[in-house]
Amino acid sequence: SVNTFTHPLGITVDRFIVQNQHECPEATGELTQVLRDIVLASKIISREINRAGLSGIEGLTDEENVHGEKQRMLDVIAGVRFTRALVSGRQVAAILSEEREGIIDTGNKHAKYVVIIDPLDGSSNIDVNISVGTIFSVYKRISKHGEDFSIEDFLQPGTNQVAAGYVLYGSSTMLVYTTGNGVDGFTYEPSLGEYFLSHPNIVQPEYGDYYSINEKNQESFPDAIREFLARCKKDNMSTRYVGSLVCDFHRNIMKGGVYLYPPTSAYSDGKLRLLYECNALAMISEQANGLATNGNHRILEICPTWHRQRVPFYAGSKSLIEKIRDH
Ligand code: AHG
Ligand code: MN
Ligand code: MN
Ligand code: MN
């Protein structure tokens, strides 16, 4: 028999965000608005992505971005949508986007928060109809309200995130986020234009049978990682790797497993970026009972020295990440 949808279309993400705000005495509604803005932009992007193969926006632009990657039209469109939503919502003073060189000034000098965003993660997969994502982090700014923002607002350790999450544009579009009180997942119902709470209190299994890694440069991996991978194989674990970080990460959160992006000969600190990608996912991991490290330290405790900093990234089920740490 067909399994019926066990989550009634009950709690919308909007209601959930507001409810949470009421439970937090010092909350004033500004963070609520930031989350709503992100939700709105993600709906627009979800629509664009669903139509990408027809509208032609999955293709490349003539530009390279600041990380030396080819930029796609959808990368740019997604960046613009998030920026517009956050500018209109007026609760964010500045934005740092993976796809843009400088800090984006929203003109909202009096806002309390700043946002770091990877508008479209896994965008090299978009033209072959593979799932992509969005990753975001929200921080309280360090600079004074009413004054100009500064780069220091963005160079905070991940432990300072007040909210973080991702959107997965997959077979369904899903939003997964945390404000430091566990992790919740919402599934988008496109004909209603609403996200509904479908995965309350996500907990990553402590053990897992999956590992996700691009083994292309395995001969240059650190010994600890090579040993860990040998162990995974011996333990009969399965490999799963899409090449969209959000997808690979999400699978491991739900099923139990580990995601690895170690240093390689091409990228001596790994390929993934601490600010745009790793911090948000590390907060989700920890809030969901998992761990995220660079091999020696918690990702969240790394003090960034510059905005495009890369870090080795190992995130996933506790028992698996602990094995990596042991070395
Ligand atoms: P982005 O599309 O935002 O630039 O991110 C690309 C990242 C990440 O999504 C993915 O997991 C990783 O690059 C894949 O790297 P490899 O192709 O080296 O496996
Ligand atoms: Mn990119
Ligand atoms: Mn990315
Ligand atoms: Mn990206």
Topology of helices and strands:
Blueprint: H1 13-23, H2 30-50, H3 52-55, E1 60-64, E2 70-72, H4 73-89, E3 92-97, E4 104-105, E5 113-121, E6 132-140, E7 161-169, E8 173-178, E9 183-189, E10 194-199, E11 210-212, H5 223-234, E12 238-239, H6 245-255, E13 257-261, H7 274-287, E14 291-293, E15 313-316, H8 318-326
Parallel strand pairs: 3-5, 11-12, 11-13
Antiparallel strand pairs: 1-2, 3-4, 5-6, 6-7, 7-8, 8-9, 9-10, 13-15, 14-15
The site of 2,5-anhydro-1,6-di-O-phosphono-D-glucitol (AHG) has 12 residues, from strand 5.
Structure description:
- This protein is an alpha+beta fold.
- Helices cover 30% and strands 24% of the residues.
- Helix 1 (13-23) packs antiparallel against helix 2 and helix 2 (30-50) runs antiparallel to helix 4.
- The chain starts with 12 loop residues before the first helix and ends with a helix.
- 2,5-anhydro-1,6-di-O-phosphono-D-glucitol binds at residues 69, 98, 118, 121-124, 214, 243-245, 271.
Task: Label this structure with key terms.
30% helix, magnesium, binds 2,5-anhydro-1,6-di-O-phosphono-D-glucitol, globular, 8 helices, 327 residues, eight-stranded mixed beta sheet, alpha+beta, binds manganese (II) ion, five-stranded mixed beta sheet
- What series of H and E elements makes up the topology? HHHEEHEEEEEEEEEHEHEHEEH
Secondary structure: number of strands? 15
Could you tell me the radius of gyration in angstroms? 19 Å
Structural class: alpha+beta
Specify the helix fraction band.
Answer: 25-40%
Strand order of the largest sheet: 4-3-5-6-7-8-9-10
Strand content: 15-25%
Counting copies of identical and different chains, the oligomeric state is: single chain
Note the main sheet. Answer: 8 strands, mixed
> First CA to last CA: what distance?
48 Å
Poorly predicted runs are none
Q: What gross morphology would you assign? A: globular
Mean pLDDT: 94
Number of helical stretches of at least 4 residues? 8
The small-molecule ligands in this entry are: 2,5-anhydro-1,6-di-O-phosphono-D-glucitol, manganese (II) ion
